Amino acid sequence: MKTLKIAIQKSGRLNEKSVELLKNCGLNFENYKSSLITSVSNFPLEILFLRDDDIPEYVQDGIADIGIVGENVIQETKVDVAYLQRLGFGKCKLKLAVPVNSPIQKVSDLEGKAIATSYPNILNNFLQKEDIKADIKTISGSVEIAPGLGLSDAIFDIVSTGSTLKNNGLQPFADVVSSEAILIGRKGEENTPLIQELIQRIQSVLRAKDNKYIVLNVEKVNLEKVVQLLPGVKSPSVITLADENWVAVHTVIPEKDFWNRINELKGAGAQGILVMPIEKIIM
Ligand SMILES: Nc1ncnc2c1ncn2[C@@H]1O[C@H](COP(=O)(O)OP(=O)(O)OP(=O)(O)O)[C@@H](O)[C@H]1O
Ligand SMILES: O=P(O)(O)OC[C@H]1O[C@H](OP(=O)(O)OP(=O)(O)O)[C@H](O)[C@@H]1O
Ligand SMILES: [Mg+2]
């Protein structure tokens, strides 16, 4: 059987989460900082550790079969690849920002101004759509210091918490692109059995991450009220207890409305609520 190749970031913001995701998929491999390629011992897969900028082209050209990279990098490199799975980490936005005292307040104020960025293609597309002519200054990093140094009037860069902008006396005024890490593949070749197997494993890990397993006790008289609050994977399991007036309910609830649900359940008579992480959900 052909060995699959996956390209992930060698070091940086996406490296740790990419490695963790592959390990959570049950893949065994050594992760030495010095090795740029490693084999998985229990799946026909090789992992290539690359600069993130190179990953989209490696996949487009078939050097790697699949890759994990930020959507921002895919858009910037203008490659034609298939999006196989959004991965839910590396979430950030590309924003326009200016010094706090700048007269630039909105996108149209950028006409004729200089904008520093590491994403000239995405910025250029955006400015063309907005019908604005500006001078794009392409730099490879530390974009936030450009206005302070007199290189540009504005910047266009990655923002997550916003603390880098704040620390450099900048404020955002327009969001252009939202990004997260994506599993990409070569167009037309995304349906091979090995890729599909890996996608299924990844989905079972992501599904598990989005949900919690909960166990609670409730008096039988309140059971119906409690069950109505529990959507679950299917219907919840209801298990009898030594005290015949009480039952234990086991189910899965989404992480995102976890605290609201817990309070509603308590209000409906649930007691002794246990909440546990789930490793995988296989559908
Ligand atoms: N502050 C952030 N919060 C969340 N995600 C981020 C943040 N900064 C960057 N990212 C995402 O992580 C990706 C990798 O960021 P990183 O800063 O490690 O890139 P890099 O310095 O270009 O790395 P490389 O050395 O691989 O070229 C970005 O392309 C983006 O998708
Ligand atoms: O909104 P924040 O949470 O402050 O994050 C934004 C910063 O994160 C990224 O840089 P990173 O720290 O990865 O360093 P880099 O410049 O070496 O890529 C990005 O280029 C911003 O500078
Ligand atoms: Mg890079």
Give descriptors for this structure.
5-stranded mixed beta sheet, binds magnesium ion, D-Maltodextrin-Binding Protein, domain 2, 27% helix, 283 residues, ATP-binding
Structure explained in plain terms:
With 283 residues, the protein is α/β, with parallel strands linked by helices. The chain folds into three domains: 114 residues, Periplasmic binding protein-like II (D-Maltodextrin-Binding Protein, domain 2); 88 residues, Periplasmic binding protein-like II (D-Maltodextrin-Binding Protein, domain 2, 3-Layer(aba) Sandwich), CATH 3.40.190; 68 residues, 2-Layer Sandwich (Alpha-Beta Plaits), CATH 3.30.70. It has a six-stranded mixed beta sheet. It has a five-stranded mixed beta sheet with strand order 8-7-9-6-10. Strand 13 and strand 14 form a beta hairpin. The longest helix has 17 residues. The structure holds adenosine-5'-triphosphate, 1-O-pyrophosphono-5-O-phosphono-alpha-D-ribofuranose and magnesium ion.
